[in-house]
Specification:
Layout (H helix, E strand, L loop, with lengths): L1 H17 L4 E2 L6 E2 L3 H9 L5 E5 L3 H6 L6 E2 L2 H6 L11 E5 L5
Parallel strand pairs: 3-4, 3-5
Antiparallel strand pairs: 1-2
């Protein structure tokens, strides 16, 4: 049980590091920063257009993941570069373990 807690903390730490990277939003070529607090609020409010993609393995995803995330392992994304169909103005948030 303690090891699972450590994994969750590690995953959340990786997510917070990832959130310091700009995410694409709005017009073509524009990016906006999405902070951890803002993402948490969007998840809690079930904001329309929020798509969270977890690029870790299926096993890692089953152990712990961000609420509402969709699992598309990196190896699958490398083979099929098309993303799920989402509205044009969606917030796409990707996260990984940092070792994927």
């Amino acid at each position: 049980m303690k090891q699972t807690g450590i994994r969750r903390v590690g995953m959340l730490a990786a997510l917070l590091v990832f959130l310091s990277i700009p995410v694409r939003s709005g017009a073509v070529g524009s990016f906006e920063y999405l902070g951890a607090g803002e993402l948490k609020g969007m998840i809690e409010q079930k904001s329309p257009g929020l798509v969270i993609i977890d690029s870790r393995s299926a096993q890692q995803f089953e152990e712990a993941h961000v609420k509402g995330a969709v699992n598309i392992p990196l190896v699958e994304m490398e083979q099929d570069t098309t993303l799920p169909k989402v509205p044009k103005n969606s917030w796409l948030v990707f996260y990984c373990s940092g070792t994927t």
